[in-house]
Amino acid sequence: MWPPPSVNRITAYPGAWWATSEVVLILESHFRTQRSVGPLNSGFRASPNRGPNVTEFWIGLPLGLRYLLVGFVGLLGGGLANLVIYRFAYFNPRPISPWGPSAADAPSRRWFDRIPVLGWFTLRREASIHGSGFWIRPLLIEIGTALGLMWLYQFETQTGGQLPATLRIPAFLPIVEPMLTTMFFVHAILVVLMVAATFVDFDERTIPDIITIPGTIIAVVIAAIGIPIFLPTALPVARFATAVASTTYDSPWFTSVNIANEQGISIALLIWSVWCFALADRRWSAVIFRRRGLRRALKHFVDGLFHYGFWKVLVAIWLLGIVGITCVWMLGGTHWQGLLTSLVGLAVGGGVIWAIRIVATWALNVEAMGFGDVTLMAMIGAMIGWQAALVAFFLSPFAAIASVLVRYLITRDTYTPYGPYLCAGTVLTLVRWDQLYNGWLASNLLFMGSMLLWLCIGMLGLMGAMLFVWRRIKMVIFA
Questions:
Q1: Greatest CA span in the chain, whole angstroms?
Q2: Of the residues 273, 312, 371, 396, which has the maximum number of CB atoms within 10 A of its CB?
């Protein structure tokens, strides 16, 4: 239907990327070309929100050169992922990456060894040390990361794949390309980090903090700069889209609540403090509690927090974060809105996995999910927001089904790392964002409102009860 109903009732949305008046004029021109329509009246007045100068310089480069540069960045990102995969593995680090130290009995590394892709062919000389074919997987990781980022760049910035279908028109995409470009580069960082996390988790069933802690900090800092990095929400929600806005913490409601008050800063500081505390070496012992009482159990817990020297790094991160959050809060504007959106994404992304881990571990009496999955999803939520993190979480089981079944049939191993499938769910979310969020989730969130929290709590309790009953059934059957 054109003109779309209620289009003139759209008002200014916080975080809107561009002038709705320009959107309407472009859409009007496009649809006139496709069919005969009458003039569309609009009362919107705003100016396009242009990206930073570096983004404009990037867009000014020839498109072919941009693809080559993105591919080169992908090769470097794949090399960085290989370095993390092999050097920072928790249980079995191996000196395979040419950017790390070589094995003691290996010949000295040469400059040619560090050239992406080509260097792995010369490193085949170390096959007697690392095993035949050791170089194939890291070679494919570098090629796959480069090709994947080139495709993602084309999908996000040239075709507007994450925009509503009504706005993917040639006359409109140049207006939003600066914002789409900055969003892509954040997603590129996320993809490289997820590649490293995926293969480390496959190898060792653990996700090292060297991936998730820096990744989360990078996400929070970029969001605080005020650059629009979050995925687009179609406006008006659940209707014919004539504009989009960044999916901030209050999407799709876009409330007019003042977030610059004491409640907003309290929420941000609480989220940051809980995240830092969650990263500490927490050693609560139910055995000590039952046998020696609460006092000894608490002493054991506190001693564990300071057992390793890493607690000093965590305290420094916490203090710097407290100061930084307070400064951004005082600065206000899009800086504070972006930071709060990232922190809420961190809390929801990590909190959902943490809650499921606690409930499922209690119900099954075995560790249900590793804490690395919690920190991984917190990082993902900080980069793409809580709405996208929820979508990614619910997609992850579908991404896991085929792989888990094949793995079980071959190895009969029932313990499957879940981190790779959280990453796969995130990629699916980025690729199908418009259909999943704008086409379905946003309208449901708009309808449920505050009921969403209670629905999630109810589903969590139901899951715990079902897992507990299943454990009792298995005990009876296999006793």
A1: 82
A2: 396
Burial label for 224, CB within 10 Å (0-12, 13-18, 19+), is buried
- The helix (H) or strand (E) run that includes residue 206 is none
Dist. CA 276–CA 255, nearest whole Å: 29
**pLDDT digits over 397-447, tens only?**
888 887 777 777 776 666 778 899 999 999 999 999 999 999 989 988 888
- pTM: predicted TM-score of the whole model, two decimal places: 0.87
* pLDDT on residue 256: 57
Cα 231–Cα 214–Cα 383 angle in degrees, nearest 5: 10
Measured CA to CA, the distance from residue 307 to residue 300 in angstroms comes to 10
What is the Rg, in whole angstroms, of the alpha carbon atoms belonging to the chain?
25
Task: Give the whole-angstrom CA distance, residue 335 versus residue 33.
Answer: 40
State the average pLDDT for the chain.
Answer: 83
CB 249 within 8 A of CB 341: yes
For residue 4, pLDDT beyond 60: no
